[in-house]
Design brief:
The structure is a homotrimer. By secondary structure, chain A is an alpha+beta fold. Chain A has 3 helices and 7 strands, in the order H-E-E-E-E-H-E-H-E-E. In chain A, the strands form 2 sheets. A 5-stranded mixed β-sheet of chain A has the order 1-2-7-5-6, covered by helices on one side. In chain A, strands 3-4 form a two-stranded antiparallel ribbon. Chain A starts with a helix and ends with a strand.
């Protein structure tokens, strides 16, 4: 196998999703210097948004799975932008927004769905800074949205 | 005309707003290397905050207009920081926060009010990465707040 | 005294907190080039999360104190990552998330608790860009979470 990131993902049962067009007037990634900025990726499975709100109709395990799907889309965006995932030098920062009721406070556990995927895929280069906050609603009713900043090899 | 960005905006009926002082203990922009970080700009018209909440007392069209005003303030901040808008190399990332009820899910459409203005003003250099999320409330009751990261020519 | 930042803080009665491990699968800081990205720091005092929601069970003064504790943790993370706070060149950007009811709109005043501490500690180098938004809930019930981007001397 030529791409160790994808082979690690495949060994864990993950496959990179097919990317659609952004749902609005922006682009999925911008490379500025050696930093790749990735637009917020909403959770999706089988081509449909994973809808839900933590503390209401989605439990932590389902939230983590939703967050994991955001991570797969982030990695798919890296591949689309860079051509080769070996160009990823470091996952620098994730911004995780968790659709939450006012009394749900386990955003860190949910966001771990994305974070643990990054470490699985990239090893130490996947260890990132992060913020995780609750929000009352997300685009299209999505349960989780995560954006990212990635340092790349030129 | 010496500034093509402002002439494009003027041709579309837009005028850059006059900037006031930040409402708190921070500065509107910081230039670090060739990246300009712009503080969150709340929507304003005629010197007053545009108040409202999507899904409650403001519809998508009004939300887009509010978001557009955030964009005009972002561009005015770029001009104040850089002197000449020709120094804008790329709009890299927008972070859009939309004052929303829990059942409003069209944050992308609202945020397009800012995004489309950036493309109008800067063309391909205005195409940016973006996150757009709902929030339950914003400073001074504003409907929309948008911050930005901009790559500049030194 | 060898560290003027810490001596300024001490003169104002502040002491840098002891850092615990992150509560999830991420790291507290990532240095990419000359930019240090710091994970969201939740407010803490005496080793416990400061819980609360502005507009409900916490007033602006208590919110500012909570935000100030986030600032102390941000500075402690800078010291842990850089070894010497004299390597801080500029506080570039703060992202402040304030646990708020839907009718609380004084997020800027609350976030000033962090911002004013940065100016106290670093002087003009502490003057930063910022966004401050309301959120309905935060990890572990925290009242305030703030992340940061800091430019460093190599």
């Amino acid at each position: 196998m030529t791409d160790s990131v994808e082979s690690r993902l495949a060994a864990a049962g993950h496959q990179l999703p097919t990317l659609g067009a952004p749902i609005a007037a922006y682009v999925p990634t911008v490379l500025a210097g050696d930093m790749l900025y990735i637009s917020g990726q909403v959770c999706q499975a089988d081509g449909a948004i994973i809808k839900g709100r933590l503390g209401e109709d989605m439990d932590v395990a389902a939230g983590m799975a939703a967050a994991q799907s955001c991570g797969l889309f982030l990695i798919a965006q890296m591949k689309a932008a860079l051509g080769d995932l070996a160009r990823v030098k470091r996952i620098v920062k994730l911004g995780a927004f968790i659709n939450s009721t006012a009394d749900f406070t386990q955003q860190p556990q949910v966001a771990n769905g994305t974070s643990e995927l990054m470490i699985l895929a990239f090893g130490d280069a996947g260890r990132h800074a992060r913020s995780a906050v609750g929000v009352p609603t997300l685009p299209l009713g999505a349960a989780v949205e995560v954006d990212a900043i990635v340092e790349v090899h030129r």
